Amino acid sequence: MSENIHPLLPSAPPRKKINPIDLRQKKERHEAITMLTAYDYPSAAILDEAGVDAILVGDSLGMVVLGYPNTLPVTMGDMLHHCKAVARGAKWALRIGDMPFMSYQVSIQEAVRNAGRFLQEAAMDAVKLEGGRERVEVIKKIISAGIPVMGHIGLTPQSFHQLGGFHPQGRHAHEAVRLLEDALYLQEAGCFSLVLESVPAQLASYISQQLDIPTIGIGAGVGCDGQVLVTHDLIGLFDRFMPRFVKRYANLGQLMKNAIEQYCQDVRRRDFPAAEHSIEMNKEEWETFLKLVQPITSPKRVEEELK
Ligand code: KIV
User: Fold this and answer.
1) Which CATH number applies to 20-256?
2) pLDDT in tens, 16-30
3) Can you give the residue ranges of every domain in the chain?
4) Cα(115) to centroid(ligand 1), Å
């Protein structure tokens, strides 16, 4: 298979592989960056084919794929498993693996090792982790190991207990100053980009203008350098709750339910499988088969065997 041919979609036109520097250059050219989450091979391939710049294997998979109430139970094992599948589907987009709760908080050594596993074992191009100034030291060490890091501030779901729930952040002036400072600390630490989650649009826009690195907003208004959403929210595959900042572009959940109901009805009515879904045996072979089995299934033989 040629280098530029996609494994799932062979007709896909060749595209340049995106790296962290490309995102920065997009910011410089005032081109909006597109990022979405993916957790498996087919959706990664579809996102890649659709031209998304960056694919995040978010720990949101804990909620939208694994059915946990929040992201805290997600493990390194879960993340690597899904990252590997995404890496097989996404050839051109920048692939970012989200470091799960407790994979980077315990010690710097453990954090560097875990970050490395995303690149070494799961073919990610970069990692993302949550937190502001308190993460500077660990981020510097991960970057010094040659691993690009995306920061994530504002609403950081792994700290929802500490934040008192899933609330917007930075609505008060002092909190907003702290967020700006955190963004500057993370840029200084070497992050190639930052996610700003659930912060007021004016503040996100202000922070984006103060930074050289691109900001990727989720619930942070149009002034960020790019946008990210959880794909399951965008396509209507997850409806346990929907944050206000989500725009639903399709309702695949409903489409899927309709299709499954139709299938059940067809099976029950014996409308499926129809002739075109069935395998035929040619007439001659069938007749030979009947002749061959006749002595085995004849009533006389059955009677004898029952004696
Ligand atoms: O886990 C995730 O999907 C994320 C995005 C919402 C940024 O962190």
Assistant:
1) 3.20.20.60
2) 999 999 999 999 999
3) 20-256
4) 17
